Amino acid sequence: MALAVVYSRGRSGIDAPLVTVEVHVANGLPSMSIVGLPEAAVKESKDRVRGALLNSKFEFPAQRITINLAPADLPKESGRFDLAIALGILAASHQIPKHTLEQYECVGELSLGGELRPIIGVLPIAIQARNSKRKLVLPKENIGEAALVKNIEMVPAEHLLEVCAHLTGQKSITSVYAPEVQPTPAPDIDFSDVHGQYHVKRAFEIAAAGNHNLLMLGPPPVRVSRCWHRACRLFCRY
Q: Taking the model in full, what pTM does it have?
């Protein structure tokens, strides 16, 4: 009898709530059940995970396997939990170490051959993983979107075997860090470049000097809008 815990992320609008994948392997008739309000795509992960483990030359436990996706009141959708479920089964059956999973959050859909397929909505997952100070294990094709988040360590993989080799220390995957985005320098534009519009420019100057709100109605000219941002920076400097 063994229990393993793997961290993953769900989807709720533009948020990515934490989903704790608990895998319990116990004696009994061979079966595999998923609880925790799973939708059809999540229920079908049983077959995908079984095929991925067997085709990757792992042992699939011939025991009673119960998978709980907590919290139970949060609907779970898509195949994003495939990787976490597979790793939980391997950890609960003592094929990979459990303690290494604590520092990771895992997302990704598995093919029957064990390849990792990309998922949608990686950006909020990356933000929450960074805030939780955990590394993010994700399909390699999702790196571009996740790299938009600063100060996050990502572990990209193409196959389940790569992830397991990394967790066991046999062959580490080189972590990818999102680069620091350098701000684009603002163009050197001044109100003197705007002809006329004296009342508008006067309102901009008063609002910037007094740190007041400003409501613009209608589409303002691009040059006027840029000058407004520059005026704010100049007045705030002093």
A: 0.75
Q: Do 83 and 195 fall into the same domain?
A: no
Poorest-pLDDT segment among 75-84, 98-107, 184-193: 184-193
Of 148, 156, 149, 150, the C-alpha closest to 176 is 156
35/141 same-domain check = yes
Question: Residue 104: in which H helix or E strand, if any?
Answer: strand 104-106
Residues 157 and 203 reside in one and the same domain:
no
Tell the residue number behind the tokens 């990787």, with chain if given: 83
The torsion of the CA quartet 110, 116, 117, 119, rounded to 10 degrees, works out to 90
Are 224 and 194 contacting, i.e. CB atoms less than 8 angstroms apart? yes
Q: Is residue 74 part of a domain?
A: yes
Residue 73 burial (CB < 10 Å; 0-12/13-18/19+)? exposed
Structure tokens at 93: 């059956």
pLDDT band at 180 (very low <50, low <70, confident <90, very high): low
Cβ–Cβ < 8 Å for 69, 39: no
Q: Which domain holds residue 232?
A: 191-237
Q: Residue 35 falls within a domain, yes or no?
A: yes
Residues whose CB falls within 8 Å of the CB of residue 97, separated by 6 or more in sequence, listed in order: 91, 167, 168
